[in-house]
Amino acid sequence: MADLIQYLRQEPANAFKQLVERFAQKLWGIARQYVHDRHIAEDVVQNVFLEFYRGEKYRGINTEGQLEAFLVRMTIRRAQDAWRRMKRNLATSVEHLADFTADKPASEQTVDIESALLQLRPEYRLILHLKYVEDLSIAEIARVLDGAPENTVKSHLHRARNELRKILQGSFDEGSDLPASSAT
Questions:
Q1: What distance in Å separates the CA atoms of residue 72 and residue 140, rounded to the nearest whole number?
Q2: What is the CATH number of the domain that holds 115?
Q3: Neighbours of 143 (CB within 10 A)
């Protein structure tokens, strides 16, 4: 990765392709946790890469961790902006609601985890995504979240799991033949 950073400095146009290949999928997953729409998430990620490249923001980055954290923070900010714009537009347009569930099979016996995740606060969705989809450690998540204390990350992760468990438990209680359980 240090080679990629050096390559960015020497031949930014050529190295940029490698940068996109390395981080696009991860950044798309993070953006989607905020905007809940794959197309808007793609736009967010494209804009992040363009802004990163045009602004030569790689000049002050020296390590893989700094590069990844910077791109993730940029993605979070742009996704939050996009989500705010969507919420404003959503008040006048109901069509977006169908996009959230358009590509999911209908089944009464399947708990819709994505729907449950949508009920969580954005910061909880993000922490769960970083931990379980991106497989980041607590320390890595803390670094990505602008150097948040690790104990804060642990607390948010714990709360996010508990909230998700409650939501999923409610799904079982309301519409499933499975018995309700209070196991945690």
A1: 11
A2: 1.10.10.10
A3: 20
Residues 176 and 109 sit within 8 Å (Cβ to Cβ): yes
Reduced to 3 states (helix: H, G, I; strand: E, B; else coil), residue 134 is: coil
For the chain, the domain total comes to 2
Dist. CA 123–CA 78, nearest whole Å: 14
Look up the pTM and report it: 0.56
Helix (H, G, I), strand (E, B) or coil at 159: helix
The answer on 120 and 71 residing in a single domain is: no
Would you say 149 and 142 are in contact if contact means Cβ atoms under 8 Å apart? yes
Please report which helix (H) or strand (E) contains residue 136, including its range.
none
Mean pLDDT for 141-164 is 86
Of 104, 129, 156, the residue nearest 35 (C-alpha) = 129
Residue type, 47: N
19-to-46, 53, 78, 129 alpha-carbon distances in Å: 12, 10, 18, 21
* Integer angstrom CA distances of residue 34 from 48, 119, 125, 127, 166: 15, 12, 8, 11, 21
Per the structure block, which two tokens stand in for 90?
A: 């959503």
Q: Is the pLDDT of residue 173 over 70?
A: no
